[in-house]
Amino acid sequence: MFAPGQEQISKEEIKAGEAQANQTIRMAVTGGILLYLSPFAIDFVNKFL
């Protein structure tokens, strides 16, 4: 990984990787919240109808 002669990652590639990681984390958190709230939403819809 840190051996001499390996390519260096450019700052643009690092920024792109950070943006992708942030988006992945946000999607995972959003998915977890939606999964937590889904039973309550289903109960509400069943009571409403």
From TrEMBL:
Predominant location: mitochondrion
Location of this chain's protein in the cell: Mitochondrion outer membrane
Topological relation to the membrane, as annotated: Single-pass membrane protein
Keywords for this protein: Membrane, Mitochondrion, Mitochondrion outer membrane, Protein transport, Transmembrane, Transmembrane helix, Transport
Domain of life: Eukaryota
Family: Belongs to the Tom5 family.
Protein name: Mitochondrial outer membrane translocase complex, subunit Tom5
